[in-house]
Design goal:
Layout: H1 3-29, H2 34-55, H3 59-80, H4 86-99, H5 104-123, H6 131-143, H7 149-171, H8 176-180
Amino acid sequence: MTVLLTASLVFKALAIMLLGRIAWTDFSTQRISNRDVLLLLCLGLGALQFQALQTHSWLEMGISAFGGAALFLALFPFWLLRKIGAGDVKLMSVTPLLIGGSNLLAFSILLLVFAVATAALVKNPFLLPAGMFRHYVQHMDRKGVVPFGVPISAAAICAIALEMYHAIVVATSSGILEQLN
């Protein structure tokens, strides 16, 4: 494994831990801090920088930046209408820089799955096992606040984990493809 790949994997592992913290904070307080989003931005840009240096291509960074800008522009009107929180908009805008442009499809599918699961749990709190969680979700439903940072973080964590797994498998493979070339 090269030094650049190792550094990229370390940045992605730190991003996974920070996403877990963001998910828990959003679940418990319905707030996503600017500091956490900026840290994710720095980790994502750093990981993409290492990846670009390793592959000698800036295409991945360009696709990620375009995806982040497109998500921000698409979600900003919903924030103006108070349908989604500002932290959720910022988190969604930074997420393409974390997962890379090649994993946006996997992230989108995972986000859809986690968002549907979150909506189902909010609408049917009796599906949850613990009484305290049931009470908390009922309280969220009465207030009309759904912590959308939780499914965003969960989908990003899964997409990053898939990318890390793929990178490690390719880096530690037997080298048969290299021998054929």
